[in-house]
Amino acid sequence: MSELLVDFITSLDGYASGEGWPGFWGLEGPEYLAWLGEQPEVTYLMGANTYRQMSGFAAGEVPNGHDEFRAEEQASVDELTQATKVVFSSTLEEPLAWANSTLVRGDAVEAVRAMKENDSGLLSTIGSLSLCRSLLRAGLVDRFRVGMFPVITGATGAERIYDGYPDVALEMIEHRTFDGRIQMVEYTPRVLEHPPLGAPA
To answer: Which residue segment(s) compose the domain that 112 sits in?
Structure first.
């Protein structure tokens, strides 16, 4: 049976990216990069928007306002290219151009439920905020991990991660600091039907 990890990289105020900011907000360090390189083999799950963006990066496109990728960003894209990827979309067409990518047109929740039951190894989301939200609501997420970078992007932040989420109780199972500034926290999530003081009136 597979385990499902929702994995986010965020600013302190919960944004997935920021206009004018480089990847990792330009704050990754040697400890963090070494840890990324030590991660186990994983099958990545993503939606169409994340696929379009990341496959574009793999094909040589760079974000607006950037002339080229930094070495750390390019290495991250190259690792994703080599990894197994499952893409959930009703709009993309086969065959997918990005290497090692499989398109699934059916219901993502049911497809991931079947993958968890029938496969082994680790499944992990990348980006894909609405997909992560759907999987969490369905109770399929085993681990919820957030890498928080020490920056607040209140003026330029894009993609607020937790909008539209249900209430979720989180039990911490791991925490770590990288390079004296990046906080990684990992939890077991439990979706709540109502807040602890009772159902809303």
So the answer is: 3-191
